[in-house]
Design goal:
globular, alpha/beta, Hypothetical Protein Mth938, Chain: A, five-stranded mixed β-sheet, three-stranded antiparallel β-sheet, 8 strands
Length: 127
């Protein structure tokens, strides 16, 4: 799926997703990723069942800028996170929103365009 917003030179923008990967700021990524305002990282996660608090360390450790809102894209369909993980993420001072990956990509782009301190942890859609 192509989503082609105007690129901001100093911010990461999700340009497309599908076929098991993503295109972020003119770079192709295979598999899951974490998109922070100024960089994108490969994320070693295959499905929601494997999520744990330690996998979100890059979001917790982000300082340029510190993240306030974390969008979690769970793949083709929304999958609820375990209550304990939601509570642990909130205890880090993060507001979290869980949605399907397509919605998370589009929401991230809108919020980063508004210069919000947002990150997106995205599981891929399709193969």
């Amino acid at each position: 799926m192509e989503i082609a917003p105007l690129l901001q030179h100093d911010r990461q923008v999700v340009q497309g997703y599908g076929k098991g990967g993503f295109r972020v700021s003119d770079h192709e990524w295979a598999g899951a990723i974490i998109v922070l305002p100024t960089r994108t990282l490969s994320w070693d996660v295959s499905n929601v069942a494997h999520l744990n608090l330690g996998l979100f360390d890059p979001v917790r450790d982000a300082t340029d800028p510190p993240i306030e809102l974390l969008l979690i894209g769970t793949g083709a369909k929304i999958v609820l996170l375990p209550a304990r993980l939601r509570a642990d993420l909130r205890a880090l001072g993060l507001a979290i929103e869980v949605m399907d990956t397509g919605a998370a990509c589009r929401t991230y782009n809108v919020l980063i365009g508004e210069e919000r301190r947002v990150a997106a942890a995205l599981l891929p859609v399709g193969n």
